């Protein structure tokens, strides 16, 4: 990621400056969080279907159990994922769109939670929590402001 880029995620993933998940209870019960989560859910669902199709087709992506201890290791892991995406798209081009959909259901929500990892790196996650929370709150405020403006401008 560069600059302000981030990824939407489901609640199985921890909040960080680069990963913005939907809210867990009790935060998910707050009205502004419900609005935010509902409006971004379609993005998250599409992303989950995409990842489910990739992980269903390429089991090697489940958890991507590769030690990342350096920038070079990170680049190797990204190349691995990129190759899987390219191969997936080639197969879809050859076999048609239906071939992608058949793999979506093979990767369940439970498997996705397993893939999100365990509590390793907890100290780093705690350090990212504050920055991630600030980004989360900023996104919610921007979304609510946008909705407010659209409502009163009659669009």
Automatic annotation (TrEMBL):
<dbReference type="GO" id="GO:0046872">
    <property type="term" value="F:metal ion binding"/>
</dbReference>
<dbReference type="Pfam" id="PF13359">
    <property type="entry name" value="DDE_Tnp_4"/>
</dbReference>
<keyword id="KW-0479">Metal-binding</keyword>
<feature type="region of interest" description="Disordered">
    <location>
        <begin position="101"/>
        <end position="134"/>
    </location>
</feature>
<protein>
    <recommendedName>
        <fullName>DDE Tnp4 domain-containing protein</fullName>
    </recommendedName>
</protein>
<feature type="domain" description="DDE Tnp4">
    <location>
        <begin position="3"/>
        <end position="89"/>
    </location>
</feature>
<feature type="compositionally biased region" description="Acidic residues">
    <location>
        <begin position="112"/>
        <end position="131"/>
    </location>
</feature>
<dbReference type="InterPro" id="IPR027806">
    <property type="entry name" value="HARBI1_dom"/>
</dbReference>
């Amino acid at each position: 990621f560069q600059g302000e880029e981030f990824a939407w995620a489901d609640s199985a993933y921890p909040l960080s400056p680069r990963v913005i998940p939907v809210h867990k209870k009790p935060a998910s019960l707050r009205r502004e969080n419900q609005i935010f989560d509902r409006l971004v859910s379609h993005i998250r669902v599409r992303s989950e279907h995409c990842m489910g199709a990739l992980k269903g087709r390429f089991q090697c992506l489940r958890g991507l159990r590769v030690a990342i201890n350096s920038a070079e290791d990170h680049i190797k892991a990204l190349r691995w994922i990129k190759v899987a995406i390219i191969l997936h798209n080639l197969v879809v081009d050859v076999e048609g769109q239906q071939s992608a959909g058949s793999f979506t259901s093979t990767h369940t929500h439970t498997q996705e939670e397993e893939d999100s990892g365990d509590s390793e790196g907890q100290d780093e996650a705690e350090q990212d929590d504050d920055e991630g929370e600030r980004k989360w709150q900023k996104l919610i405020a921007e979304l609510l402001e946008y909705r407010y403006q659209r409502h009163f401008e009659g669009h």
